[in-house]
């Protein structure tokens, strides 16, 4: 799949096939693509935690959910309609957690994480997987997994899309201006 095809076909998916586990070599290939992403001043200020253990993913989901205020919890509870048990990670079998490692300031760490996230999203799409960026992860305390508190930038859930789900077209309303 070309990079243009990956950009055109990637969508946020919240329903994953629970019987499918991505091969380790694909999980690793996606992680390796992520760390090859460019970074501000080449400081490489973002590290990556790759989680494939369902119990750990579920525990992380619960920590993030518990840190939400009641309005946000109610919003995420609407995902129960999709048949989900875990409303933040959407029961995905793989989770990529991007976090600041202190090698650069917060502004560049966030920028680097965005670039790294796009590498994860497009590589996963090119391999036939569905993904979902999760900004909410930044409020969770994942220090028990070696990530310093308040350093999580975002997470990306990944897996195979559940068969039969409707994937709506993506309409963009972002303005492009050309100066010539």
UniProtKB/TrEMBL annotation:
Any one GO molecular function term: oxidoreductase activity
UniProt keyword annotations, A-Z: Flavoprotein, FMN, Oxidoreductase
UniProt-listed Gene3D superfamilies: NADH Oxidase (3.40.109.10)
Matches recorded under InterPro entries: Nitroreductase, Nitroreductase-like
Cofactors named for this entry: FMN
Residue ranges annotated for the Nitroreductase domain, each copy included: 7-160
Pfam family, one: Nitroreductase
Protein family membership: Belongs to the nitroreductase family.
Protein name as annotated: Nitroreductase family protein
